[in-house]
Amino acid sequence: MATRIMNRNDIMQVIEMGPTIQAVENVYTMKSRGEAVAWPTVFHVFEEGQRDMDIRSGYLPGEHIFGHKTIGFFAGNTEKGLPNLMATINVFDEFTGAPVGILEGAYITGVRTGAAGAIGAKYLARPDSETLFILGAGNQAAYQIAATIVCFPNLKKVYIADLLFPENAERFAAGIRQRLADELGIDASGVSFEATNAPEVIVPESDIVITVTPSRQPVIQKEWVRPGMHFSTVGSDMEGKEELDPEIFAGARVFVDDMAHCIEAGEVEIPVKKGIIAEEEIHEIGDLILGNCAGRTSDEDITIYDPAGMALLDIAAAKVALDLAEKKDLGTVVEL
After folding, report:
1. What is the pLDDT of residue 289?
2. Closest by alpha carbon to 117, among 241, 195, 209?
3. In 3-state terms, what secondary structure has residue 260?
4. For the chain, what is the radius of gyration of the CA atoms?
C-alpha cells in the first residue's frame, strides 16, 4: 500500500488558497445534501490544563475518502522545542481502507479555516466590499486575509487590531504583504495594510469584519455597526466564546457551517440562549451556496457567518494537498 507522507514544508509548497476554498465549499454543499458524515469526537484529558487530545473524523462519499484529524495540546512542549499544538491528518480510500496520506495538520487547518471565513464573506458581504477589518493579529489572521483577497480581488484596505498587544498588530501589518507572496503566492500589491488600536473608529468604516480571537466577552459593539456590514466570527469555536455583542444578531441574517455544533459552541450560542435570535432564523451556509435559501437581500442587511469548524474540512483540504503533491512529486511515498 503506497502512502504519501507530507510534512509542513511539503504542504506549504503545494497548498493553494483557491482550490482549498473550492474544497471547503464542496464540503458545505455535500453536508447540505446529506452526502457528508461527521462522526462523534473523541476527547481525552491526560492532565487538566496541561495535556489533552481529541480525534475528529468523518466520511466524504463524494470524494471517496474518510479520515481523521488527531490534535493535541501539550503545554510542556515549548521547553522541548516543539509546538504546543500537535496535529496529524490521516486520509483513507473509501473502497479499500488503504491509507492515502498522512499529513502534518496544523498548516492545513490554518489554510482551510481562512477559506471558511472568506466563504462567508463571498456569499454574504456586498460584492463591492473594499475594506476588511481583522480583529486578532495571530497566525490565523494571515489566512483570513489571503482567502478574502482571493474572493474579493478589488479589496483595497485591510486593518488589523490586537487590543491586548498592539505591537503584534504593528509587526503583522508590516510583514503581511511579503508573507502572502512568499507563503501563498498571493499578490497584495494593490492592498494597503494598517494596524489600528481603535476598533470603535475603524469597524464602522469597514465592509467586512472577521474576528479571530479567543475572547469570552464581546469585543465588537452594537453601536459600531452600520447597515450593510458583514461579519465572519472565526474565533468562537468553543462553548462560552463570544466576539460580537449579542444584540448585533437582532435583525441580522445569520448563517452557520453546522447548526447543531454552532448552537452548542459557536458565536450563535449566546444569542440563541438569550432569545435574541431563534434557531429557525439561522441557516447553514451549504443551503445558501446551493440556492436553497436567501442570503443578503439588500445592501442594508447586516450579515453574520459563524464557522465553528468541522473536521470534514481538514480531510477535504488534505486531499487537495495530496492531489497537488502527486502532480509535483512532493512528499515521501512509502509502502506500509
Report:
1. 98
2. 209
3. helix
4. 19
Closest CA relative to residue 58, chosen from 321, 278, 311: 311
| CA dist list (Å): 59 to 62, 128, 239 | 9, 37, 25
273 grid coordinates: 440562549
* Phi, psi dihedral angles at 101 (to 5 degrees): -160, 155
Which DSSP helix (H) or strand (E) runs through 124?
helix 105-124
Cell numbers given for 245? 455583542
**pLDDT for the residue 143:** 96
Supply the pLDDT for residue 298.
Answer: 97
**Domains defined for the chain, CATH in brackets:** 2-108+312-335 (3.30.1780.10), 125-309 (3.40.50.720)
Interacting residues of 69 by C-beta distance below 8 A, sequence separation 6+ = 55, 56, 57, 87, 88, 89, 90, 105, 109, 311, 314, 315
Catalytic residue status for 273: no
Determine the distance from the C-alpha atom of residue 98 to the mean position of all C-alpha atoms in its chain, rounded to a whole number.
Answer: 29
Identify the pLDDT of residue 65: 96
Looking at residue 1, what is its pLDDT?
76
Identify the active-site residue in 69, 122, 241, 319. Answer: 69
Longest dimension (CA), the chain: 60
Tell me the CA distances in angstroms from 333 to 4, 8, 261, one per residue in order.
4, 15, 36
For 302-329, write each residue's pLDDT tens digit: 999 999 888 899 999 999 999 999 999 9
Q: Are 280 and 293 in contact (CB under 8 A)?
A: no
Average predicted confidence (pLDDT) for the chain? 94
Is residue 116 within 8 Å of residue 144, measured between CB atoms?
Answer: no
Write out residues in the chain with pLDDT < 70, as ranges: none
Residue 244 sits at the vertex; the CA angle it makes with 74 and 216, to the nearest 5 degrees, is: 35
What single-letter amino acid sits at 270? I
pTM greater than the 0.90 cutoff: yes
How many other CB atoms are there within 10 angstroms of residue 213's CB atom? 24
Instruction: Please say whether the beta carbons of 315 and 89 come within 8 A.
Output: yes
